[in-house]
Amino acid sequence: MILTYQGGASVKVQFGDITLSVNPISKDSKFKASRFGADVALVSINHEDFNGVDQASLGDRQAFAVTGPGEYEIKGVFIKGFKTESKYKGEERINTVYTVNLENMNLCFLGAISSKELPSEVAESIDDIDILFVPVGAEGSLSPADASKLAVNLEPKLIVPLYFDDKAALKAFLKEAGEEAQKPQDKLTIKKKDLEGREGDVVVLEPQA
């Protein structure tokens, strides 16, 4: 599996012939949009920083859009969406937290969640997270301290902060996590066996858009 960070809350996930675009950035966003063909596009909130589904379609590869809570199976990819709340950019919004199972690994994308605690019914449905993607410092989303607390509580093997181009927020998050020595890398290439013995380790990805 290859994971690359596209800026904002956008992540590209590649496994074999399957490509996922998580929270693709719209052309209307202030963040730089990156266009590539994906099989599936996951959208956490209806905002131009997250809902650029057209940017996830290219040529013959047209992305199947998942835009809210529910259970989905697309091309052997198992996806669950859970309803939470967001105050992204100062507006009350529905935020969908997604879990994705690929190559026997469980990925969790928190979207633009604003609460440092998941609703109990959501928390009970999400366990054994291998890689957690957590928003850090975006307006109306989690502060670096709250992002660190939520990430620790969910007990993932790896934590990937999505820092919305805010290097100060990233620095504060890494300090909270005791991972100040972490240096950004262009991508994360990982297999299930690589997660053995990992407990809440932080991996910083450099935006590639």
Structure commentary:
The protein has helices spanning 120-125, 144-154, 167-177; strands at 2-7, 10-15, 18-22, 40-42, 64-66, 70-74, 77-86, 93-102, 105-109, 131-135, 158-162, 188-189, 201-202. With 209 residues, it is α/β, with parallel strands linked by helices. It has a single domain, classed as 4-Layer Sandwich (Metallo-beta-lactamase, Chain A), CATH 3.60.15. Strand 1 and strand 2 (10-15) form a beta hairpin. Helix 2 crosses helix 3 (167-177). It is globular, with a radius of gyration of 15 Å. It starts with a strand and ends in a 7-residue tail after the last strand. The mean pLDDT is 94.
Q: What's the CATH H-level superfamily name?
A: Ribonuclease Z/Hydroxyacylglutathione hydrolase-like
Number of domains as seen in the coordinates: 1
Order of helices and strands: EEEEEEEEEHEHEHEE
Total strands: the figure is 13
CATH topology descriptor: Metallo-beta-lactamase, Chain A
Largest sheet: 7 strands, mixed
Structural class: alpha/beta
Main sheet: which strands, in order across? 6-7-8-9-10-11-13
Q: Determine and state the CATH class.
A: Alpha Beta
What Rg do the Cα atoms give? 15 Å
CATH architecture term: 4-Layer Sandwich
Q: Helix proportion of residues, in percent?
A: 10-25%
Mean of all residue-level pLDDT scores: 94
Net shape = globular
- Gap between N and C termini: 19 Å
